[in-house]
Design a protein that fits this description.
Elements (H helix, E strand, L loop, with lengths): L8 H10 L7 H11 L14 H14 L1 H17 L1
Helix pairs in contact: 2-3
């Protein structure tokens, strides 16, 4: 399973385990999740969160699936530019 295909927190953690990313390497996990989501700008209303807090917010955003809609819209825009 790829990270893009994950639908649950368990799926996400299994992908990280397969890639041998330690459970406390939140910087690597955050970077991978954000890359899959198209590197959206994230707003953290809690001030200056820790990397673990950022991870929890990013996972929640990832699992919401809203980033998939944005990716589809970017693809449609690219296709229109090619025409």
């Amino acid at each position: 399973m790829t990270l893009k295909e994950c639908k649950t927190r368990e799926d996400i953690e299994n992908v990280f385990m397969e890639k041998e990313i330690s459970s406390d390497n939140f910087e690597a996990k955050n970077a991978m999740l954000l890359e899959v989501m198209g590197n959206p700008r994230m707003f953290y209303s809690i001030g200056n969160p820790t990397t673990e807090q950022k991870y929890e917010l990013i996972v929640a955003s990832f699992l919401s699936g809203n980033w998939k809609y944005a990716a589809i819209m970017k693809q449609v825009a690219r296709e229109r530019e090619e025409v």
